[in-house]
Specification:
single chain, 184 residues, Porin, 8-stranded antiparallel beta barrel
Length: 184
């Protein structure tokens, strides 16, 4: 099954960027808060399995670059005629947003937290990277990547670095608060 969702989203973003106002003062400032929603669903044709992935994160900008926050994620496997399986993640995060211009804001960071479900709890740690594309002063599209590896004891982190998850997400975010200079 071919999935065209990403292509459609990318085409819409490019059209928006082509007609965007010339001066967009959108980059986050110190004191801003942000909420970001990411999600996706996958089901192969003829398969008895499907997967829902979703996460929401709240961030607070200490400076225009440094952001601290908390991400709550959920991965849910739907399996016909068997027990469904879910895993949630709760991870505090620290991110640096690079401000090269006010529209395209790349970021790098990391998180460490818990992975849990109704059977077990373990730890997770990993790097984050991505790009925020501001569509308006307070709304952006996010294209992000993070790698998660898991551990039962913190000293086991090095032994598990090659047995983790690659997580790619596309979502929408909203920024508010802070002190912005009014547009002329």
């Amino acid at each position: 099954m071919k999935n065209y969702n990403f292509s459609i989203l990318a085409a819409l973003a490019l059209v928006w960027l082509a007609f965007m106002p010339a001066q967009l003062l959108a980059a986050p400032v110190a004191g801003d808060s942000e909420v970001e929603l990411n999600g996706g669903f996958f089901h192969s044709q003829g398969s008895d399995r499907g997967k829902l992935t979703a996460d929401v994160h709240y961030g607070y900008y200490l400076t225009p670059g440094w952001e601290i926050g908390l991400r709550q994620g959920l991965n849910y496997d739907f399996i016909d005629d068997r027990r469904d399986f879910w895993v949630a993640t709760t991870t505090p995060l620290l991110v640096y947003n690079f401000r090269f211009n006010d529209t395209f804001i790349p970021y790098l960071g990391g998180d460490i937290g818990l992975v849990w479900n109704d059977r077990t709890v373990s730890g997770t740690v990993g790097p984050n990277a991505g790009l925020k594309i501001f569509l308006t002063d307070q709304t952006y599209l996010n294209a992000g990547y993070r790698y998660q590896w898991f551990f039962r004891k913190f000293r086991d982190v090095d032994d598990n670095t090659n047995r983790g998850n690659h997580v790619v997400n596309i979502g929408i975010g909203f920024v508010w608060g802070g002190t912005r200079n009014p547009k002329p």
